[in-house]
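Subject: sequence -> structure tokens, single chain

Hey, anyone have a minute? Need the predicted structure for the following. Not urgent.
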Amino acid sequence: MAVWSIVFKSKLEGADRLDAEYYKPFYLQISSSLEQKNYVELGSIAWISDGDHAVLPELFDSGKRYLRAKDLKNFRIDNSDPIYVSDDYFRTIKRSHIQPHDILLSIMGTIGNIAIVPESFDILTANRAIAIIRIEEDSKFDPYFVAAYLESKIGIALRERESQGGIQQRINLEGLKRLKIPFIPYSLQAEIRKQVFVALSRYRDSENIYAEAEALLLHELGLDNLDLSTQKTYVANFSETVESDRFDAEYFQPKYYGIRSVNRGRNKKSEFKLVHTGL
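Reply:
Had a minute. Here:
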């Protein structure tokens, strides 16, 4: 069903956004509600930049951490697949240096992933797909409150409103600076910060419990000592391709042979039963 939205010329928020998507009734309702309360624009309380604009700098096994959008997950920086740049290169991109308590937001491709840099992290950097939001110390705004607000239903809607592009979505830094942040008592901001810490702590606990459960399962299945690394070269017999009706190289990775051999051994001992799923 068609949705109509009429906007007076005086209400247009800058000549750079004249598209109908920007003025959806839902977005206008949120904006109007915030304007009736005490609010500030994000750009007035924070220094906002983005990451390194190089296509891809030379990477190393150590040095300064170089973040990508996929490294931002659930308010945290994921350390499962880190990459690094040299100290010399790091010194050439000062505008993209990231400090503890900075809010990080993915603004290109898959937009909206968010994280806050913990106190324990050294100074690091990122690529251009990440916006760096540094709340000013004298702004009376807590970075954890601002991050929680940006991840709320209202914050997500405001971010979606500022997104542009078709398949390759993005949020411009000027759009981030326009985001309306409600001004609430610092005591309430501190309580929100406390709840964020509680949530992060419970998330870490859940990861640890899941890792313990996975380790127990793999041990019981006899899979805990298998080499599951991906091999670049390997050989398979033609008879195996005929039997499996698979001719792709991925299917014959040695790591899969190890899993199947353990499963066959378990099945013979009747300790476990292989179940085939699907139609």
